[in-house]
Amino acid sequence: LSMHKKTEAWCGPFADISRGLVSDMRGRGASDKHRPYTHARWFDDVEELRQWAKDEKFVMTGGGSMSHGGFLTLEYALAYQQHLYGIVVSDSAAQMSHWGTINMTKAALTDPRV
């Protein structure tokens, strides 16, 4: 299960020996636009997709340019390790603490009083 469409390119060579699922997170890309768009909802979507696919265990990948998919992959691994053969996380941070700084900077730059 991949949390980013860009991983299709490097997952392709494994098509002969496995099945791959590539998912756009809710509200992004070609996904349905059903709200809410929250971290908790995206996290639950991963488990619902695993159940839909009827896969007891799988390898989960996430990442790509500070991708939120990497965060979901790490969090899913902590909560549902019994359903994973392993994980692949690329180009992602181990925590999201910098997002608060980014959001404050954005708010300051877009505030009409500034």
From TrEMBL:
<protein>
    <recommendedName>
        <fullName>AB hydrolase-1 domain-containing protein</fullName>
    </recommendedName>
</protein>
<dbReference type="InterPro" id="IPR029058">
    <property type="entry name" value="AB_hydrolase_fold"/>
</dbReference>
